[in-house]
Design a protein that fits this description.
heterodimer; A: alpha/beta; Pyruvate-ferredoxin Oxidoreductase, domain 3; 3 domains; about 35% helix; B: Rossmann fold; eight-stranded mixed beta sheet; globular
Chain lengths: ~550, ~290
């Protein structure tokens, strides 16, 4: 089976991300599944940005080190990626910027000037050249440009793309596949749309990489999706605003990264005590502190599991691909409302900002869940004792109900109390909800298995590393086991998934093995760690090499 | 005070059965009872249903008021009532949302939210129980304690001057600014009603007696006066600023009570209302957005 990898690199501000997505669309048009890894430093202009676009006939969620085509806008885009260039690699570079290049030099400055086009159209020259090298027709190239370029700039882009197309020669031929053109979206976008699918009415956030783009996306689509998108003064305000919305009956979610989540933890604990639903999209990046804002990590698992003073049930899910980001974001919001607990969707920069082919038709949606609402009978008691721990909801403005939310220990009505019996009952009621949530989740795919059952070796991983692990494990005929839900921990599903696991390795994007620690805490053997903590996700071949050390 | 009209409320009307734990002589009683009366009268006079009132409390002695009145309550966390209030107003424009906050609560812990709610002209009411001392944590200085105040955390006396919260609110963009005093209860009730009826961000700083840690009764009785017609032009920023600066919470000066500033401006929540109006089939909208990425 043929697959293709393309790298495009240049300075920040040159539109590398957008160009990368256009490259993915080029392959998508021919029926390929695509994945894009976007690497950029924390600055606005200059530096070195690059995107690796990989296309395959099968679903993928990881890149490989070697590339078939390298598109370089500057010298760094060649020098920094020498290890990716092999005998079959075609290098196309901007001859106006690159002094030492081998391959095709396109005089992009000259082309743009001669075509009387804005400098940003240089990306289209590269796109055109790539199309020619890959044996992709002009018609497909034109279609992609028509979709991605605003009408008033289309003609200029088509002319410049044509010059790129004519400036190189065909090196190989990408065969069209008998498969539909799939939408290409980021994990952030899928999570946002999943939330709306689950009933979201308001999204509240303060900008922080890697979830800023979720805020931007939903703000840009607010009218089309009929939702409110709010950006208040800080993350404390963010979560409290969401709690105010939810108290008054509106389904709200928030988004942040580790630093912002630190500020939200007091509000999180309040949500736990007052039993106000809230859904939090927590995109991880390397810490501690500001760390590396635009890079990736899986370092906040224990933080989200334990954040907030006191003890209260919560739902924590870590989607590993775009379909999971969509379905589980929807489910997280619905579970939060059904059980009146905080839901946390734990993503990372790789998933949040990575571009993926999104097969909405093949998605296996979870059941719809409804919140339990007050029937209006008798005196309303916000924290009424029930068998499953869930007290029916009423919202202020409802005649005949006095709705009391309380951060203090409280009685069934919601009045503050410190009485021993009442506070014990309250605590037990909250944990009854946790048990009910756990029972409900027994019917969900909380732990996923890929590959053969009795393989003699099992690769355990979570979140965005799933894509690289599935491909790398195939090389060894190993099984992959991926927990999706971390709270309440699906111990039974885990046990079943690990029957006959054989030799176990646990792959994580952190330095201490956070999933491994959780597994030990739950009484399971996490096997041997394979860790990476340089802010970059594993490339498939890189992971294969690391697994070979452990499994061979 | 009007009789209760809503069915199903316990006898005693707007006073809840929760046991009251404020100190004898506490200024909070006056605020509690005047808010109770203000709500009852607004319900009667303006036809605002009692179930549309929401009281929020922060943490401190003031917050207990939320337990003591029989209306919807949101007994939140220290300093954070205001963003929750804005959230409620965004969700339901029919609600009358009143934040009871303390001076430590909102001028220290949650000052950012106060300033931003004023800046946005969020359609909520903020009532500050300004006793100029921490009560529940037993006697530390607050942002409005006067220079030299000896609290338990500053036994040598503070070397910082208080903020003038009214001046701060005027600068931040508040559209309704008033000050009351817990010993002038009728006046206080009228200030509450006026603030609640104001469309936009309304702010009332209430000089409140702390019977235990900072009893300024004699001082306030001597220095406060109710502003009369013509004392301030409430529609003019400069006039309000002059009047607000008459007393800075520090030096001895006459202390004006009443409304300093009241203007109409578009409210924050308005433009968001249309976005979620009706009962849209959002799943169909989601599919459309996904299709556009193909």
């Amino acid at each position: 089976m043929r697959e293709y990898s393309v790298l495009i690199g240049g300075k920040a501000g040159e539109g590398i991300n957008t160009a990368g997505l256009s490259i993915a669309r080029l392959f998508s048009r021919l029926g390929y599944r695509t994945y894009m890894y976007f690497d950029y430093p924390s600055l606005i202009r200059g530096g070195h940005n690059f995107a690796i676009i990989r296309a395959s006939a099968r679903p993928i969620g990881a890149h490989r080190t070697p590339v078939d085509v390298l598109l370089a806008f500057d010298q760094n885009s060649i020098e920094n990626h020498r290890q990716r260039i092999h005998r079959g690699t075609t290098v196309i570079y901007d001859a106006s910027q690159v002094t030492k290049g081998e391959g095709y030099g396109l005089p992009i400055d000259t082309i743009v000037r001669e075509e009387d086009a804005p400098p940003i159209t240089g990306n289209s020259a590269m796109l055109g050249a790539l199309a020619r090298v890959a044996g992709i027709g002009r018609d497909v190239l034109g279609d992609v440009l028509r979709e991605s370029v605003p009408a008033k700039h289309l003609e200029a882009n088509l002319r410049v793309a044509g010059r790129g197309y004519d400036g190189v020669e065909s090196a190989f031929s990408v065969e069209p596949l008998d498969a539909p053109t799939l939408p290409i979206m980021t994990g952030n976008e899928a999570a946002g749309l999943g939330l709306v699918h689950g009933g979201l009415e308001s999204y509240v956030a303060y900008p922080m990489t890697p979830t800023s783009n979720l805020l931007h996306f939903l703000a840009g689509q607010a009218e089309d999706l009929s939702i409110k998108v709010l950006h208040p003064e800080n993350e404390i305000s963010v979560i409290l605003m969401a709690l105010g919305l939810a108290y008054a009956g509106e389904k709200a979610a928030v988004g942040t990264s580790g630093g912002g989540f630190c500020l939200m933890t007091e509000g999180l604990s309040f949500a736990g005590m007052a039993e106000i639903p809230v859904t939090i999209v927590m995109g991880q990046r390397p810490g501690p502190s500001t760390g590396m804002p635009t890079y990736t990590a899986q370092t906040d698992l224990h933080f989200v599991l334990n954040a907030g003073q006191g003890e209260f049930p919560r739902f924590v899910v870590a989607p590993g691909d775009i379909e999971e980001a969509y379905t589980w974001s929807s489910t997280a919001l619905m579970l939060s409302w059904k059980y009146q607990v905080p839901s946390i969707i734990l993503t990372d920069k790789t998933l949040a900002e990575g571009g993926y082919s999104f097969d909405i038709e093949k998605i296996a949606l979870h059941p719809d869940l409804e919140p339990v609402l007050w029937d209006g009978a008798g005196e309303y008691r916000r924290y009424a004792r029930t068998d499953d721990g869930v007290s029916p909801l009423a919202f202020p403005g409802r005649e005949g109900a006095v709705v009391r939310a309380n951060s203090y220990a409280h009685d069934e009505i919601g009045f503050t109390t410190e009485e021993a019996g009442a506070v014990t009952a309250l605590q037990e009621k909250r944990f009854a909800k946790g048990e009910s949530l756990k029972a409900e989740l027994a019917a969900y795919p909380t732990v996923k298995i890929y590959g053969p059952r009795n393989a003699g070796a099992t690769v355990v991983c979570w979140g965005s590393e799933k894509g690289a692990c599935i491909e790398a494990a195939e090389r060894f005929g190993a099984r992959v086991v991926q927990p999706l839900v971390f709270a309440p921990f699906p111990a039974r599903a885990w046990k079943e998934a690990m029957i006959g696991a054989g030799k176990v390795v646990c792959v994580e994007n952190n330095a201490t093995g956070q999933l491994a620690r959780l597994l030990r805490q739950e009484g399971f053997d996490p096997g041997r760690p394979v860790l990476k903590y340089d802010g970059r996700p594993f490339a498939v071949d890189e992971l294969e090499a690391r697994l070979r050390e452990v499994l061979a | 005070m009007s009789p209760q009209r809503s069915a199903g409320r316990p006898a005693g009307g707007l006073i809840s059965p929760a046991a009251n734990t404020w100190c004898p002589g506490c200024g909070n009683f006056a605020i509690e009872h005047m808010m109770k009366s203000a709500i009852a009268e607004l319900s009667e006079e303006e036809g605002i249903p009692l179930h549309n009132f929401v009281l929020l409390g922060g943490i401190g002695c003031h917050g207990k008021l939320v337990d003591y009145l029989n209306v919807n309550g949101f007994y939140g966390i220290h300093g954070r009532s205001i963003p929750a209030a804005t959230g409620m107003r965004l969700a339901n424009p029919d609600l009358k949302i009143i934040c009871h906050v303390g001076d430590g609560d909102i001028y220290a812990e949650g000052l950012d939210h106060l300033i931003f709610a004023a800046k946005r002209n969020s359609d909520i009411t903020v009532i500050v129980h300004d006793n100029r001392v921490y009560g529940l944590t037993t006697g530390q200085y607050t942002p409005t304690s006067p220079f030299g105040f000896r609290g338990r955390s500053t036994p040598g006396g503070i070397s910082e001057h208080p903020i003038n919260p009214l001046e701060l609110m005027l600068a931040a963009g508040a559209t309704h600014i008033a000050r009351g005093y817990t010993k002038k209860i009728r006046h206080l009730k009228d200030l509450f009603k006026e603030a609640i009826l104001h469309r936009g961000f309304s702010f009332v700083d209430v000089l409140q007696i702390c019977a235990t840690y900072f009893n300024l009764t004699d001082y306030y009785n001597e220095h406060t006066y109710e502003m009369q017609e013509g004392d301030v032009e409430t529609g003019r920023f400069e006039s309000a600023l002059d009047k607000i600066r008459e007393w800075d919470y520090d030096r001895d000066a006459p202390i004006a009570l009443g409304t300093f500033y009241s203007v109409r401006r578009p409210i924050y929540e308005e433009k968001f209302q249309a976005l979620t109006a009706g009962r849209p089939d959002r799943r169909a909208l989601v599919r459309k957005v996904i299709e556009r990425s193909r």
